User: What shape does this take?
Amino acid sequence: MINELLFMNGYEIYVLSAFSFTLLSFTVLYLVTKIQFVKEKNKFVAKFGSLNTEKANSAKSQRINKEILANTTSN
Amino acid sequence: MFKFFQPNKIFQITSKAPKYILFLFIVVLSIGLTEALILSPEDYKQSDAVRIMYVHVPSAWISLGVFSAITFLSISGFIFKNKIFFLISKSLAPSGFVFNIIALVTGSIWGRPTWGTWWAWDARITSMLILALFYAMYLISWRIYENEEKVFKISTIVTIFGIINVPIIKYSVDWWNTLHQPASINILSKSSIHSSMLFPLLIMTAAFTLFSLLIFLMKYNTEMIKIKNKGLDRL
Assistant: This one.
């Protein structure tokens, strides 16, 4: 049974390489997208931190800015 | 009508959704892989090589679907002068492109044991390669043009030319004598695929769709934060 699953009648190289390529592409795309996201968010937090109180309050009044800051710890 | 497409409202959903979608994707993918690699039967002609279908076919479907959506959104963005449509299409493109590449590579791997060759300049395969080029042009246009109006125009033109290729991909196997087999699944008529193979195929399609949605949401959130970063610079 295990032999049948592993050797797939001699097609294991083709089947497993196709599945591996797919999963590898998924991992790379996910990581690249995640890194870009974290980079932008860190940039936002750093910029927000450098604002004076008045500007920070004005920026905080926008709903999206509030969401980004709220999600900083959860993502 | 476009109240729903306000960035504030969309961001409220998209900022929270990725973690749930990722969890759902892992669950559905695990079921799909078990079905595709272990439980589904081998084909009477292609033997176990048929299992490649479970990654090849959903990838091809999604890459075609995403390109059609990008075209529709770009044209809508142009007609209704709504930037958010362009932002959504830009965020959809990376996953569509990667699925297109997966379809080409896994198709090539599948071709070796079934046709005896890695590549053939047949109508279906060549038109899929052309779609990948249109995806690349679309993504490059966003990278090279700084001017917003210009990038909206150029990227929409790329999608309009690219969409002409989509029906060619779909009907290439009917219009020409191709090495690629005709469609086994038909929405309007009876499918020739057995339910024991159709079920894992649909599960894998659901998993790949969830992955595409996940990447879209992450990319969309990144684009929104980029815009907000520019906003902070102006304060």
Notes: The mean pLDDT of chain B is 91. The radius of gyration of chain B is 19 Å. The first helix of chain B runs from residue 7 to 14.
